[in-house]
C-alpha cells in the first residue's frame, strides 16, 4: 500500500526515542522509489489529460493526480521528519559525548550524518570561542547546577595518568575511588571512565 | 538566593575590591533575572550580552585573585564554589538561548531579518546570528542532499512549514512596576483589562505580556 514504508520510518523513530538506530537505507530507498514512481505516473497522466483535452473528450484525471500528489507530499514529510529527528538526536549526543562519538553510535550513522555532525561540532566550537573576551566559554561543562566543589567518583577502567587543571597528575586505576573537583570529572563521567557515587 | 548572599561575602571578604564587588552583586541580580526570563519565556528574548560579558569579566577577575590565595585556605573553596555557581548561571543562560535558536532557527532568522529591515534592534547577538545562519545552512544542505533522487526540481515547500514557539503558553509573571491595562483574552474571544500593582504576580498567557518582559516592566518567575 502507498505510504506504508514512510509510515514505518516514522514509527521506527517513535519506538527509538533518544537513541540512534542504524540508518535505515533500505526503507528510505523504498520510500524514494515510491515517490519517483508516483511522480512518473502523474506526469504520464498529466500528459494524457492534455492529449485528451485536445481531442475534446476523455477521462477526468484530476482526482487520481491529486491523490498521488497527496501521497507524495506525505512521503516527503515523513522522510524529512526522519532525517530531522535523527539530527536532533545527534545534536543531543554532541552535548553528551563531545566532538568524538563512541564507535557503536558512529556505525549507525549515514555518511551525510557524520558530515553534519562534524559541521555542527565546528560551528558550536566557533560560537563558544566567540563568547566573552578571553578565549570563550566551554558551554558543555557545568550542565547541572553545582552542589559541591568536590565529588566522589569510582573509576571504571584503567585510564592511566590524568592531568588536573592545576598541573598535578593523578593515576586512575580500575575500581579505585577518588575525591576530585567536580569540574574535572564531568567529562570523564560522560565518557564512562568515572561513575559518580551519590550517597 | 544563596548566590546573592555569597556575592556579599565576596564584598566583605575583600574590602579593597568593595567598589567592584558592589556592582558585581547588581550584575548578578540582572543576570539571574535574565536567566529566569529566558528559561520561562517560550520565545527567544533580546540578548543580554552586556551582562554576560560583565559577569564573565568578574569571574576571571576573581579567578585571578584566587591564585594568590593558598590551596588549603577556606576562603578559596568558598570562592571557588561561588565561581562554579556563576559559571553555571552564564552557561545555562547561553545554552538555553542556543537550544531555542536551534529549535526555531527558520522562524527566528525570519524575524531577525524583518527586524533589521524595520531598523529595530536585533534579538540575537552577532555571534549567535552567525551560529544560527550556519546551523540553518547545514540543515538545508542535509535535506537537499537527501532529496537528490527527486526527479525534476527539488521541492522546497517544507521550508514554509516552520516550527514556531507556542507563545500562548502560560507563564508566571511578576510586575516590577505599576502596569495598567493588561489585556487578558479569554477562550470565548472576550477581553478583560487588568491593572497590575508593583510586585503582584499573575499566571497569564505569554502572548498577553511578552512585551512587558522585553521592556523590562515585569519578569517571569
TrEMBL record, chain A:
Transmembrane segments: none annotated. One of its GO terms (biological process) is DNA strand elongation involved in mitotic DNA replication. Keywords: DNA replication, Nucleus. InterPro entries: GINS_A (IPR021151), GINS_bundle-like_dom_sf (IPR036224), GINS_Psf1 (IPR005339), PSF1_C (IPR056783). GO terms for cellular component: GINS complex. The keyword Nucleus applies. It comes from the Eukaryota. Required for correct functioning of the GINS complex, a complex that plays an essential role in the initiation of DNA replication, and progression of DNA replication forks. GINS complex seems to bind preferentially to single-stranded DNA. This is DNA replication complex GINS protein PSF1. It comes from Photinus pyralis.
From TrEMBL, chain B:
CDD domains: GINS_A_Sld5, GINS_B_Sld5. It comes from the Eukaryota. Residues 77-144 form the GINS subunit domain. GO terms for biological process: DNA-templated DNA replication; double-strand break repair via break-induced replication. Pfam families: Sld5, SLD5_C. Keywords: DNA replication, Nucleus. Residues 165-217 form the DNA replication complex GINS protein SLD5 C-terminal domain. SUPFAM superfamilies: GINS helical bundle-like, PriA/YqbF domain. GO terms for cellular component: GINS complex. InterPro entries: GINS_A (IPR021151), GINS_bundle-like_dom_sf (IPR036224), GINS_Sld5 (IPR008591), SLD5_C (IPR031633), Sld5_GINS_A (IPR038749). Its main location: nucleus. The GINS complex plays an essential role in the initiation of DNA replication. Belongs to the GINS4/SLD5 family. This is DNA replication complex GINS protein SLD5.
